[in-house]
Amino acid sequence: MTSRAFITGVSGLELRAAEREFIRGELPWGLILFKRNVETPDQVSALVEEFRNLVGEADAPVLIDQEGGRVARLGPPHWQVYPPGASFGALYDIEPELGLQAARLSSRLIAADLIDIGITVDCLPLADVPVAGADAVIGNRAYGTEPGKVAAIARAVSDGLEHGGVLPVLKHIPGHGRATADSHFRLPTVDTSREELERTDFAAFQPLSDLPMAMTAHVVFSALDPVQPATTSATIIRQVIRGVIGFQGLLMSDDVSMNALAGSIADRTRAIVNAGCDMVLHCNGKLDEMRDVARETPALTGEALERATRALASRKQPEPLDRQAARVELEALMDRVGTA
């Protein structure tokens, strides 16, 4: 069966009859989960299994945003709380290798949590480089403000996920750190010169260009395309994401339902596909919007299919992990930040 080039959310803890019919008929490539879809480990596992049965793919990707800090769809009492990205940056400033080790440990533990319940893709790491005056949507999710440091920690995070059998999604390419608005609510415009963007924002993504998947930023970079945000800009995707940064993996949009994008959901979907994104991401679980996305999304073929196949094939078997020892080590490393 041929998947369509979109990832869908669903509305609740279990699939409704209409959602089952939609998934079986439209065959989305993947499923993304949010807090509204999470109650217990057994419940999440059952939801994941039913999705895969409906699309007829035992390894169909199931995604989640489990970063640690304030962006965590899994939490107590069933799942551990993990540090925000900025904590790894703070420890890196004390001793770089300790910061990298903490980042790697945290994401390795996150991967173990996810694999337990059948989730195989985490929308992590971030390589966004925030600046003074930027909107707090990134905030302490970021690893730092220096591109080399951000890239090093992001690499450690992706290594931890991959060693745990979970595929990373690099975000928000080519950079959300300068945005002065939260793209969930309105479209941010960045007026920084191309030269400065290449020196800072884009430079953090370049060392990570080999990662299997990345998610776009709903941000206008006026020096490159004064009208379209990166997600719907063929110029930025071609010249910057595929060109300057050199990313050749599967490129998915950020959520098509976010208010940064203009027009109807159908208009937005067409714009995303036409700009060169391989995959459309729709998150809110509203069935009428899901149908519009499916209607405007092509079958997954050609280079997009090749990149999707290559991404899934890169997933490794989880390496052994002593979870208790890893948690103790991570806690000890984080204590170093508190006492510095």
UniProtKB/TrEMBL annotation:
Nucleotide-binding as UniProt keyword: no
Gene3D superfamilies associated with the record: Glycoside hydrolase, family 3, N-terminal domain
Reaction(s) catalysed (UniProt annotation): Hydrolysis of terminal non-reducing N-acetyl-D-hexosamine residues in N-acetyl-beta-D-hexosaminides
Start and end residues of each Glycoside hydrolase family 3 N-terminal domain: 16-294
EC number(s) from the headed UniProt entry: 3.2.1.52
Keywords linked to the UniProt accession: Glycosidase, Hydrolase
Enzyme class: hydrolase
NCBIfam families xref list: PRK05337.1
Species of the source: Bradyrhizobium icense
Organism superkingdom: Bacteria
One function term, GO molecular function aspect: beta-N-acetylhexosaminidase activity
One Pfam match: Glyco_hydro_3
Secretion signal span: none
Annotated PANTHER family: BETA-HEXOSAMINIDASE, BETA-HEXOSAMINIDASE-RELATED
The protein, known as: beta-N-acetylhexosaminidase
GO biological process: carbohydrate metabolic process; peptidoglycan turnover
Family assignment from sequence similarity: Belongs to the glycosyl hydrolase 3 family.
